[in-house]
Amino acid sequence: MLLTSFTKKYIEAGCDEAGRGCLAGPVCAAAVVLPHGYRNDFLTDSKLLLPEKRELLRKEIEKTALAYSVVLIDNQTIDEINILNATFEAMNQAVLKLKQYPELLLIDGNRFLNKTRIPFECVIKGDQKYLSIAAASVLAKTYRDDYMRSIHPDHPIYNWYNNKGYPTIEHRRAIAVHGTTPYHRKSFSMGPPFNLFT
Asked: What pTM was estimated for this model as a whole?
């Protein structure tokens, strides 16, 4: 059972990202403020959920949250400022877009470059410990997946509908054969060498 909050003293926003390890597309961050005492036995790290469950939880979060926001940072910006800074930028923008101003940020991970002046706590594997971070994880993942599906028809050979821009063997093979697109990150690494014909 995930914890409802870090402390009952403050209005908290959970923050998480999706798409950091991709070869194509944006990085996406979400910030979510849940009501004090909120409970959900099914909400956890989006990577541990089936797609159908993520979609159901997204609707629940959007209906129940006191405030939420989602921000996508495009691949050109990622190449300009690097993926880590782009992730921080997306999180900061998501927090600043919230309609209810939080008093404490719960950040998934071990570091954060804070531009909001709001106190924050970094929580390693926070999306498996706090509901607000898990909720942000679900929104970031589902919104980014929607975006990647929307651009799939532009370049179907890369199969973004299924791989969402992540470095699957299929995606890496398509890049090796056909080159990159305007949606690909120039700063990506394709990882270790692989045999095109296996």
From this structure: 0.94
